[in-house]
Design brief:
Structural class of chain B: mainly alpha
Radius of gyration of chain A: 17 Å
Number of helices of chain B: 15
CATH topology of the largest domain in chain A: Rossmann fold
Number of domains of chain B: 1
Distance between the termini of chain A: 30 Å
Strand order of the largest sheet of chain B: 1-4
Number of strands of chain A: 10
Number of domains of chain A: 2
Strand content of chain B: under 5%
Strand content of chain A: 15-25%
Order of helices and strands of chain A: EEEHEEHEHHHEHEHEEHH
Oligomer: heterodimer
Number of strands of chain B: 4
Bound molecules: adenosine-5'-triphosphate, magnesium ion
CATH superfamily of the largest domain in chain A: P-loop containing nucleotide triphosphate hydrolases
Shape of chain A: globular
Largest sheet of chain B: 2 strands, antiparallel
């Protein structure tokens, strides 16, 4: 067995009295996709923030390819191949779509060498944004802003890609494109962590599933086993996800 | 045409500025040549001195725009560096005996050297607190300057380095030097903003968190902007002292310098290279035209600022910026397929 690309161990985080992570540990290998589910407020986004370096954990460690990232900031992690999308998009509103993506390609993406503009353009093409390249990103509609989040992350040429709810609101015709994109990245050897409430899209592609509730890992492993486990079913009953586990299979 | 040479990915052509920009830049170059080669021989010495003030205002506006428009750092304390530059010039030229041109450049370096440690203090503050904090820093600079022996206390210093120099020679030298410095500052700012670093700075301005996630070194970028912008303010302060032959703590450390910078940038158009040029000309022209009105001129400035903010929120240059850029920093994509 090769060493997993990402190793998260014993992560803890609280905001005042709200515990958003309690002894969370998981691993993701290169070429593997991990799905991250859990009810609203479970701590999924916070966990992603901790892995990406935008937030510091109270305890625990984040290791990428044997290198301890725990003390590194977001930019340093990005330079080592960690990329993420934001659940609430954060476009550079004063820049065009192309320029937004160029930021990713020419900063974290620079370590790959080669032509920055080509990498930026490629990221626009695979996310379906090429036609909007010259549009000011501040005037994009929400779905395109989410696409832009993914495009910017891809332009950095990541080894580890962290996706936070990119499928919500997509039509049944658009969903397979997103699933296909994630599958292609994974097959190219990228490690993917994907937070998603649209379960059937997630289950189409992830190799493993991790369910978080109130900051704790309540199940982790084979996606279909996790989704049927009694703990997960209980947490999900009465929650706001689009499909109740079991129906989606 | 049926030749299938279009690459399958539709590789785009990326352009930065078109023929309009080239023509505009040619026009601007012509203006600079006129200012350098014709104007000094047809206007009075007094007019030349007043043009030096215009050049200093362009530098002030350009560097404040670098801070606020590109770095997202809204400082109301840049007079701190105008003052440091003014005092540094006189000390270097008179006490050290440096040639005036070298003293101005060194004053800029000193401004940067002072700004670097100050940035660690200022960057602990955010938003409105940062604005107030920078003002406090400027007041502290002024008070400390007045306490230092040899800096003339409350009455300031006069520049003696030009004693014995013919007045015409002096004014002509200061004029040409100020013109060259202004061109260098504007061009330098343009090249910076057009570079990869400039793209990163713009990203920082729009969303610091997202910029960090894409590998932009946010703290370093903001520090660079603050130090460079402050060095520019010090250069302008040195020019002003060189032109007016002296400094007083009340005038060279006056918050009205920063007020002028804000007027110039907001009226001209924030976040563009061209905006501060337009704004500086407007400010300077109003100052010239309204000088006889005394303090009423401040009222007129205020009215102009409010009117522009209401009618053209992105400044005067903002009215044309969408169609035309003299200093193109943006990218335009033309897909190879269509
Ligand atoms: N900066 C903060 N300060 C205080 N509490 C916070 C902060 N950020 C998140 N929280 C709280 O932490 C908990 C977990 O938030 P988080 O955004 O990680 O949940 P999530 O699983 O991503 O939820 P969702 O599915 O709604 O996106 C929530 O209760 C939230 O209110
Ligand atoms: Mg979330």
């Amino acid at each position: 067995m090769t060493v997993p690309l990402l190793q998260v161990a014993g992560v803890a985080k609280r905001f005042g009295r709200v515990v958003t992570a309690r002894d969370v540990s998981f691993e993701v290998s290169a070429g593997e996709a991990l799905g991250l589910v859990g009810p609203n407020g479970a701590g999924k986004t916070t966990l992603l923030d901790i892995v990406a370096g935008t937030r510091r954990a109270d305890a625990g460690s984040v290791v990428l390819d044997g290198q301890d990232l725990t003390r590194l900031g977001a930019a340093a992690r990005a330079d080592l191949g960690v990329a993420r999308s934001y659940q609430v998009p954060r476009p550079f509103a004063g820049l065009t779509v192309y320029e937004n993506v160029l930021v990713g390609a020419s900063f974290a993406g620079r370590r790959h060498g080669g032509d920055t503009r080509d990498r930026a353009w490629h990221a626009l093409e695979v996310t379906g944004l090429a036609g909007a390249a010259d549009t000011p990103s501040g005037s994009l509609r929400l779905l395109d802003r989410k696409r832009l989040e993914v495009a910017r992350a891809l332009a950095t040429g990541p080894r580890l890609l962290l996706l936070d709810e990119i499928a919500g609101g997509l039509t049944e015709r658009e969903l397979p494109q997103v699933v296909g994109l994630v599958r292609r990245l994974r097959d190219d050897g990228v490690a993917v962590v994907w937070i998603e409430h649209v379960l059937h899209a997630l289950l189409d592609v992830v190799d493993r599933l991790l369910c978080l509730a109130a900051g704790e890992v309540i199940a982790q492993g084979d996606p279909h086993e996790v989704i049927r486990s009694p703990e997960v079913v209980e947490v999900y009953l009465g929650s706001t996800v689009d499909s109740v586990p079991g129906e989606s299979a | 045409m049926s030749v299938p040479t279009v690459p399958p990915t539709g590789a785009p052509t990326i352009t930065r500025g078109g023929r309009g920009s080239l023509i505009g830049a040619g026009g601007l170059a012509l203006v600079v040549v006129l200012l350098a080669a014709v104007v000094p021989y047809v206007v009075t010495l007094g007019a030349l001195s007043s043009l030096v003030m215009l050049f200093a205002l362009v530098i002030l506006g350009t560097t404040w725009n670098l801070l606020a428009g590109y770095g997202g750092i809204v400082s109301v304390g840049q007079q701190a560096y105008v003052g440091v530059g003014g005092y540094a010039l006189i000390q270097l030229a008179d006490a050290v005996g440096a040639p005036p041109w070298a003293a101005v450049l060194a004053a800029g370096v000193i401004g940067a050297a002072v700004a670097l440690p100050t940035s660690y203090l200022v960057f602990r503050l955010a938003g409105g607190y940062l604005a107030i904090g920078t003002w406090v820093v400027a007041e502290v600079f002024r008070l400390v300057t007045m306490q230092i022996d040899g800096l003339g206390g409350g009455s300031g210093l006069s520049l003696t380095a030009f004693r014995g120099t013919d007045r015409v020679d002096r004014v002509a030298f200061v004029y040409w030097f100020a013109l060259a410095l202004m061109v260098a500052v504007v061009l330098g700012t343009y090249l910076l903003m057009r570079s990869r670093v400039g793209l990163g700075l713009t990203a920082i301005r729009d969303d610091r968190v997202a910029a960090g996630s894409l590998g932009v070194a946010v703290d370093r970028g903001r520090r660079l902007v603050y130090v460079a912008g402050s060095a520019g303010a010090a250069l302008a302060g040195a020019l002003i002292a060189l032109s007016t032959l002296g400094v007083t703590p009340g005038s060279i450390y006056s918050v009205s310098w920063t007020a002028a910078m804000i007027f110039i940038v907001v009226v001209g158009g924030i976040g563009t290279i061209e905006g501060p040029l337009v704004g500086a000309v407007v400010y300077w022209a109003l100052q010239q035209a309204l000088a006889p009105l005394g303090t009423w001129y401040l009222v007129v400035l205020g009215v102009v600022a409010v009117a522009v903010v209401l009618l053209a929120p992105r400044g005067l240059w903002g009215l044309v910026a969408g169609r035309f850029q003299l200093f193109p920093t943006t990218y335009r994509v033309r897909s190879g397929r269509i």
